[in-house]
Amino acid sequence: MALALASIKKIYFVGIGGIGMSALARYFNYLGAQVLGYDKTETALTKKLVEEGMHIHYTEQADQIPADVDLAVYTPAIPAKNSELQYFQAAATPLLKRSELLGLISRERRSIAVAGTHGKTSTSSILTHLLRAGGIDCTAFLGGIANNLGSNFVAGSSDWVVLEADEFDRSFLHLRPEIGIITSTDADHLDIYGEHTQLLDSFNEFAGLCSKQLFLAQGTEVKQQDLSAKVAHYSASQSADYQASRIRAQAPNFVFDAQLAEHFWEDLNFSLPGRHNVENALAAIAVALELGLSEEQIRQGLRSFRGIWRRFEWVVKQPNKVFIDDYAHHPTELKAAIRTARSLFPKRKLVGIFQPHLFSRTRDFMDGFAAALDGLDQLYLLDIYPAREEPIKGVDSAAILARMQLSEKELVSQAELLAKLAQEPPALLLSLGAGDIGALVPKIAEEIYHKTE
Predict the structure, then answer these.
(1) Residue 85 neighbours by CB under 8 Å, 6+ apart
(2) For position 394, which CATH number holds?
(3) For 198, phi and psi rounded to 5 degrees?
(4) What is its EC number (predicted)?
(5) What pTM, to 2 d.p., does this model score?
(6) Per-residue confidence at 453, pLDDT binned at 50, 70, 90?
(7) Scanning 62, 175, 286, 302, which has its CA 20 to 30 A from the CA of 214?
(8) What is the pLDDT of residues 131-140, one digit of tens each?
(9) Looking at the structure, do residues 125 and 179 belong to the same domain, yes or no?
């Protein structure tokens, strides 16, 4: 589609409250366009968008759409029967998927795309902070709220843009990055891909779209022949071009040494704990070095990074009570979050809350979820958050519970959860999941731990 983005004066988002959609909405709001949109539910994020000057409604009514929209954008999470989506499909208004619009933006700038079934939000946020703290004023479209920015979007004056490259619905194949990162290629989104091999085919295709440099986490299943980009590997556990060693927990941070191509740096202090986050930081460091940042700029950037909302976020940090919240919704992510909490507080009983996300993901990884959650000392398991899906027969949270070996485990409703936690607030609590569990977090902090902002 031949479309001059700077000429758009009025843009409409169907599903504006999604994390990727809201970043694009903020971009066009920054450009001075009038931004309007629909979402099913009012959230803290949509309220923030309204505060920023956007117009949002929460009832699905095509008659609320103005007649003179220059461009309409939608997310694949919106069902095909949505009346507003159908209105735009029938009208002469240009209509793009979110990923197609992000792809157009990537063609206008020098882009760095961060892909992976997990780790991409953390890596892209760390990278954005390192670059901006080191003097490269990049633009960024992120899949989470970076605490240093207070947003999932930031506008910069340089040619560089950092993009989170989403594999869902093969979205990342619309991008044309100069530099790429692939953090992981574990099986996920099998409702879209069917088989893990099909997902790997998409990652291989994405790798081929990177024109200059590609950084791969060691162990990712990416074919490296016939690539235009120069390939380098990074790892927090194996030999690689960029390798972390002597990784140790110094709560609340992690400290590590790093072999970075021809450089060796000792005692890097990183504010986001966990071996997996050290690996994410390595990828960001590799790109920062490629773009000319110095050792001192990178050291300071790592120290000053303040994390991402719902990515191992310290919600309550009291001498005898700690509450950490994490977006983990895949077995690999659950294992990483649980392992990190244990490494920081090895002598405390670890109590977890988990809300599975999607019936299809629960079906595909039922045994993996059970094994990962067995790493806790006690579990409160919530019902599955369906998001865009209809129920699948025989797939529920009780089926996960039945597969677990853990003795202290129970299925609870959100209403029951608060009452149970209040009986004896855990000394170490970890909430996990990608659904609406995030809305429970401030309630737990205030009602159980009596935290006030």
Answers:
(1) 14, 74, 78
(2) 3.90.190.20
(3) -70, -35
(4) 6.3.2.8
(5) 0.89
(6) very low
(7) 302
(8) 999 999 999 9
(9) yes
